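Slides due. Your pick:
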Amino acid sequence: MLEQLPNKSTLAIEIWTAYQQHFKRIEVPAKSILLAEGDVAHKLFLIEKGCIRAWHNDDGKEITGQFFFENSSVSSIESLKKSIPSPITIETLEPSVIWWIDKADLDKLIAEIKEVPRLRDMLIDALFERTFDYIKQFSTSIRDSPEQRYQKLMQDRPEIVQRIPQHYIASFLGISSVHLSRIKNRIARSK
């Protein structure tokens, strides 16, 4: 996992080296449920290789909330923090290599990190980045047309368009697969 660190600074290497023993490495096939909606989260996952989708069930219809790729962490944060049922399912979309840490070890790690200003700042920065991503996604879902959302997705997150099946992208954009096909055809014709 060390070679996968997005920021190979001395500090990042120190952190991973110090805390790696708390993580367990697993290899899971595509379409594996890591956390089911309604279960309480007890783990935080770090993705070494693969893709994970977070989604919820809306009366039998799967609504995709987010995609996570290499070097990302994912969990149902509300569930993990408050020990409440998860509002989302977390599922692999590709064969994946994942590192996980259980809640007890994660709580200890966070308590230690909070005492070291450099580590605390890194943690806060990571949380803010995730929050900014959610706000941006929420704003675009209200403000932009489906075609504008798809074009921004192609521009800002090309890995989603390249790696994710179309029906999941449509779900993420809040449209049908047929509507997404029409948008893609319009964009292709306009080039």
